[in-house]
Amino acid sequence: MFKHLIRAAALLALASSFTSAALAAEKTVVIGYQTDIEPSKIAQAEGLYEKASGYKIDWRKFTNGADVIAAMASGDVQVGFTGSSPLAAGVTRGLPLETFFIAAEIGTAEALVVRNGSNITKPADLIGKKVAVPFVSTTHYSLLAALKHWGIPANKVTILNLAPPEIAAAWQRGDIDAAYIWDPALGKIAKTGKVLITSADVRKWGSPTFLAWVARKDFAQAHPDFLVSFAKVTGVQNAAYRKDGATWNADTLQVKEIARISGSDPADLPALLQGTTFPLLGEQTTPALLGGGTAKALANTSAFLKEQKRVDAVLPDYAPTVTASNVTQAEGK
């Protein structure tokens, strides 16, 4: 009898451990992030997402949005930070993703920098030069849109597909004449170059770009509580920046935390932050963003990518790839 009791207890303990492991797995999420400069890096640095949601988060760093989208397509990443161009390409190809929070409307945080001594003083001087950019990124989209705005055929410029770290290295070697990129590579190359245009200029010309938090649809359906909590925390960070960000400098704790996560120079961050709009929680559901504008922007971006032969076709409607439900619930809490 005693042996039977021991065996039963062992089986019960084993079953309990399996249950605990299953529950732990359910409360774990893999998030793909990038080095872009934005306030949510503060919440990441301070562990606020974990504290608010009760989930264990495996933060994985990526150098560009295309790689984030690829990881989400494989199922390795459930929530990701990406730009509008790789996002548009991904959902156009049928990936089961939905945008649930607009992190930033890109401005001066992304720029086309020309090397000192490259003899590039005006857009027409780009013809015949080597310009590096990560393909299917927001900067790639902005570069192509800028060339179209200037009336410069893209095939008149040698456009090289390089990841941000590769751009910084190629710049250091003198292999490229210009690059369209974001921080920390942007801050590094700008020290020996000149900003020709920023994405704030491209936005004025009718080709805006944005950064978004995106979730796999299967994860979103199974764990809406996490996305609601995530949206709430991100909204709080954006609101804090909107309130006090103008006073931040290289020595401000928040700037140092953003720099630690992004790998950027704190001295570069205040100006980059001020050149970008970080929508508040209450602004997310407006017609300009998740209330319709985001779907329209994805459609326009996809049409441009098709024109550039980056995607084969466009969807009839991008609204199903965008949801405002998580931010709506977050607003009510």
UniProtKB/TrEMBL annotation:
Q: Which GO terms describe its molecular function?
A: transmembrane transporter activity
GO CC field: ATP-binding cassette (ABC) transporter complex; periplasmic space
Family matches, as CDD domains: PBP2_taurine
Picking any one GO biological process from the record gives:
alkanesulfonate transmembrane transport
Task: Report the locations given in the UniProt record.
Answer: Periplasm
| Signal peptide region | 1-24
Q: Where is each Solute-binding protein family 3/N-terminal domain found?
A: 28-245
Q: Which keywords are on file for this protein? A: Signal
- Fetch the Pfam families from UniProt: OpuAC (PF04069)
Organism's domain of life?
Answer: Bacteria
Protein family per UniProt: Belongs to the bacterial solute-binding protein SsuA/TauA family.
Q: What is the protein's name according to its record?
A: Taurine ABC transporter substrate-binding protein
Tell me the organism. Caballeronia mineralivorans PML1(12)
